[in-house]
Amino acid sequence: MIYFDNAATTFKKPKEVIDAINYALLNYTNSGRGAYRAALDSGRMVYETRVKLAAFFGSNDPSKVIFTSNATEALNITLFGLLHAKDHVISTVTEHNSVLRPLYKLESSKGVSIDFVGIDECGRLKYDEFEKYIHPNTKAIVVNHISNVSGEIADIEYVGKVAKKHNIYLIVDASQSAGSIDIDMTKLGIDILCFTGHKSLFGPGGTGGIVINGDILLDTFKVGGSGVQSFNKCQPSEYPTRLEAGTLNIMGIAGLLAGIEFINKVGKENIRKKEMRLIKRFYEGIKDIEGIKFYFDTDSLECEPENIRHGSIVSFNLGKIPSADLADCLGEDYDIAIRAGAHCAPLIHEAFNTKKDGIARFSFSYFNTEDEVDETIKAIKEIASSFS
């Protein structure tokens, strides 16, 4: 199988990740639940992962790296823990439902008000709208770093300056960017970063987290066992146990640590350069197909790969072929895996006018090859020809 659905999850993982999970299964037990060797070794591994994640994202306090099961849980914990009755929040039409649905629930249950920054025809955010939507009760801006539909990269540094100017929090959904592009929370002005482990960090499913950069107190999302303060009727107030009730996913965290170490060894710049070479090769091979319509700023790919400012995603529709039919043809006839449809991001499809047929998304990874790209270009041309 040729796999181009890496924006959903990276299918091919580094061998180091697989080895780390196997080692954890054989050698680790619960972290923070005992004084014997397996528990202590597990605790050391968990702490090392917090330290490396904090450094990886340009934060300065490993105790404020909170492990979750995925980015959706991280965003729920953050949004429900930060926003209260009558608060106002600014988000964007590019958001995933992991942001939209918590916001809608907060709107209906607590009276939180929301404004959404729009996009232009290429999927670029209308940055002038951020300040336009700020009110006296605005508490936070929530924005995804890379759109999982278009691949457009948000100018987080600009948004961070707006947030700082008005003394409001900046929450970033880094589901598509964590591990793919460099993130320095302090430099960019990010207060809270939510990430998943199973995409560009090359970790296993069931991993993710929150990184809090500053003195921000989130309400507890769930309560229960913590391994400490067992006679306290309340969840411990200190991070990270404040937000980590129950047993951690030790095997998943071990795999996540190995993924981070793999990226650090290969180098984020080297990984990104390869991915940008692949998407440029892919774009150049299909851009002249009759009837093709792209859903991103194609000018961003008209430069050398090392200068491309775009996510590892190429999204388009092919003439009158519904995206689902294109995906089916590629999967059934060529064994090429892509993603079609709405991608859990309804507002961007309203903006693109693609609610009916969705969009075909091809998402690339460091482990894809030029041969796979060339085979896929050939397949798309054959499909386009057969539908003409």
Automatic annotation (TrEMBL):
Annotated signal sequence is none
- Name the chemical reaction catalysed here: (sulfur carrier)-H + L-cysteine = (sulfur carrier)-SH + L-alanine
Keyword Plastid among record annotations: no
Q: Give the EC number(s) listed in the UniProt record.
A: 2.8.1.7
Q: Enumerate the InterPro entries for this protein.
A: Aminotrans_V_dom, Aminotrans_V_PyrdxlP_BS, Cys_dSase-rel_unknwn_funct, Cys_dSase_SufS, Cysteine_dSase, PyrdxlP-dep_Trfase, PyrdxlP-dep_Trfase_major, PyrdxlP-dep_Trfase_small
A GO MF term = transaminase activity
User: Which top EC class is given?
Assistant: transferase
Q: Which cofactor does it need?
A: pyridoxal 5'-phosphate
Provide the alphabetized UniProt keywords.
Aminotransferase, Pyridoxal phosphate, Transferase
Q: Which family does it belong to?
A: Belongs to the class-V pyridoxal-phosphate-dependent aminotransferase family. Csd subfamily.
Q: What is this protein called?
A: cysteine desulfurase
